[in-house]
Amino acid sequence: MVSTHAPHRTFCYQKLGQSLFCARTPLLCTIGILVFALSAFPQARQIAPQTAPLEGNRPGEAPIAQFKSKMTGTVVDSSGAVVVGAHVTFATDGGSQSQQVLSDSNGQFAFDGLIPGAFRLTVEAEGFAPQISSGILKEGETLVIPQIELAVAPSKTDVQVSLSPIEVAQEEIKDEEKQRVLGVLPNFYVTYDPHPQPLIAKQKFSLAWKMIVDPATFGVVGLIAGVQQANNSFRDYGQGASGYGKRYAASYADLVSGTIIGAAILPSVLKQDPRYFYKGGGSTRSRTLYALANSVVCKGDNGRWQANYSNILGSLAAGGISNLYYPASDRNGARLTFENAAVGIGATGIVNVLQEFVISKVTRGAPKPPSD
Questions:
Q1: Pair 207, 199: CB distance under 8 Å
Q2: Residues of the chain whose pLDDT is less than 50?
Q3: Pairing of the two strands 87-92 and 117-124
Q4: DSSP letter assigned to residue 115
Q5: Same domain? 116 vs 199
Q6: Residues 6+ apart with CB under 8 A from 256
Q7: How far apart are the C-alpha atoms of 157 and 139, rounded to whole Å?
């Protein structure tokens, strides 16, 4: 319509202008020009919207999409059965949009109002391996995803390997067998572990055996026999090599009988631990009393403190056996037996005190003792 009448209207207004101009009236000439301008204005308003940029766009930017897209699909397992409650996540590559839905009772899911373009679809469900796919979504498209088949996730089995109490105790014994005072003298019957495992009978006998056959043990026994010979103790043994040999044999017999009976046989029968449990902390008084008390009390294999029958009876048994090989003049029957037992218990208490304050500091393989 515009193209049909516009030339006619223009021609008429031109004629009007010419008539007014010919009248040689300035006002009418001005009115004529104004009327002519207003007659052309509707045409400009009709053309402007066709060339102006879309609202909201900036120069150089792509036009904003006017039509959102949709997506649907179904989640199944390897057997074709639908997967209910699968987590389906839609995300654009640029990260400008992300949506998550759950598959329904039919295994289906749907997204609406999606921004077209490159996307990534992630499907996750308990017991299945996650499935990730990607593609390009067109503007205004309703994309139907082919069936998404989830594979069963590989099973994981956490296996915790731990040592049995007997194996732990064996490892503790290995550490104790490395403990040597000044790097020479065996200090096997002390444990610095705050929570040691109890020993079985086999381990108690093994530890006793290693103690009595240790080379340093033979050296200590030789030193004791030498002191006895120098003091002419058990004079009926005489002097010279023969007397020294008898004293050596008697001293070694004392050590073997006391160790085997008091640290292996009786602890196995009575289920008691023959080791000294290093305290290491507390006041000097408390540690001293603790060390002295451990000559007559000990820990049972059940972890409870109890009378140290193994040490007491072991000392009595060793004293009684010594009557078989000491000279008759030095036996004195039961007297010697109880004297030897009392000496053994007292010596144990003194050694325990030394363990707390001195020996632990000069024992190779022992942990660093805490400050007093």
A1: yes
A2: 1-57, 59, 62-65, 371-372
A3: antiparallel
A4: P
A5: no
A6: 212
A7: 47
Give the domain extent around 188.
165-364
Tell me, yes or no, whether 11 and 74 share the same domain: no
Q: What are the beta bridge partners of residue 111?
A: 71
- pLDDT tens digit string along 307-331? 999 988 988 888 788 878 888 877 7
Residues 238 and 339 in one domain: yes
DSSP labels, 309-353 = HHHHHHHHHHHHHHTTTS-GGGTTTHHHHHHHHHHHHHHHHHHHH
Tokens of 17: 């202008």
Residue 23 to residues 18, 32, 153, Cα–Cα distance (Å): 9, 12, 98
Beta strands in the chain (DSSP E): 69-77, 87-92, 98-102, 108-114, 117-124, 131-137, 142-144, 148-150, 180-181, 185-186, 190-191, 276-277, 297-299, 305-307, 363-364
Q: What are the structure tokens assigned to 366, written together?
A: 């022992």
For β-strands 69-77 and 142-144, DSSP reports them as: parallel
337 domain-assigned: yes
pLDDT at 312: 87
Distances (CA, A) of 195 to 137, 172, 291, 293, 303: 66, 11, 18, 19, 9
